[in-house]
User: Fold these one by one.
Assistant:
Number 1:
Amino acid sequence: MVDILHRIGVKDSSPDKVYDALTTLDGLSGWWASDTKGSVEVGGVIEFRFEPGGFDMQVVELKPAERVLWQVVDGPAEWIGTTVNWEIKQEGEYTIVLFSHVGWKEPVEFMHHCSTKWAVFLMSLKSLLESGTGNPEPRDVKISNWH
């Protein structure tokens, strides 16, 4: 199996603020998908809708200001059964986010696309937390015909 891994630092934020952006519908729609709904509690399912489709993530684990873990329960076949993990920690003036999307069966071309798009959306998360304005879909950077 192969994984997507990224790391960002959010300046002058806090683990609590990052956690809120990952665990509230307002936070999630502010940086990832404008069309976000569902239940953000453990066991709940969050529905993220994009122009070309969407993803449903079941919330598996929540550790305030430390960790968020989702499992993909609906979406593209390559995503189903994979997990999305967010580790949050403070390092000086930066809140560090260690992101992983794990469990891909093979590094298909779609995985390359998704890795780049995760990076785009992580920069949107950083922007939301540092400036108050993110770039969620549909305002995100489009990188190909897959969006």
Number 2:
Amino acid sequence: MSKVWFVTGSSRGLGRNFVEAALSRGDKVAATARSVASLDDLVAAYGEAVLPLAMDVTDKAAVAETVKRAAEHFGRLDVIVNNAGYAQVGAVEELTERELRDQLETNLFGAVWVIQAALPYLREQRSGHIIQLSSAAGVIAMPLGGAYHASKWALEGLNEALAGEVADFGVKVTIIEPGGFATRSGSNPDPLNNGHMTQPDPAYGALRARLGAVAGKQPAGDPAAAAQALLQLADADNPPLRVLFGQGFYPMIQQVYADRLKTWADWQDLSAQAHGNLDQADR
């Protein structure tokens, strides 16, 4: 049985590959982008199987109306892919309020608006799968990525809570954590060039240069292969809550988690001290 997809950020990158993979196997897709002109070739190739929709994920009212339109057009929604997002780069000290708020408005709040708009339809159906694009940056953190990490770490916690809330309705949740994928130039994108730092602080110039020298050196993943993996997730009876796409960051994540557990263990005495004496808790 074919599925009906709702995919944000469909104009390029992984989102575009996800849409093409679903359409190529006979599924139907409500594909959203800021400009529907970027989806014209999909309409030409797949006709009525694709519904192009102009949508800015930061506009809550527009998101609700767009999801409603997609559900009414196709009669149901099976797979919701929260893919829209971008990476703001900059040291925490040099981030402007606007840059931080814009990052959260798109990556975090935009995803929330889609989830809230789609869930009533999925609950009524007693079925559905919400797939959230996070990042390896959603489970580890590196310098100059504070705003991006904040948005992705927030998405991780939000979607884990969501999974427990909607399980009784037959709705599944999966968080995808991609590493680097060749979504633009054919090579692994440099994460230091994805953001829009308006006024870089010279104090962090040396750090920026050091990170820039090693950025983008991980082997680039194939977006088409990622799209095929996404289809397997969408078809799985018991999909995972979290899954990495790509292997480049796996050893780094293993080390980060091992270090985190060791640090907690090493400081258990202080943790116990902070807990205090339970017998005197009512003092």
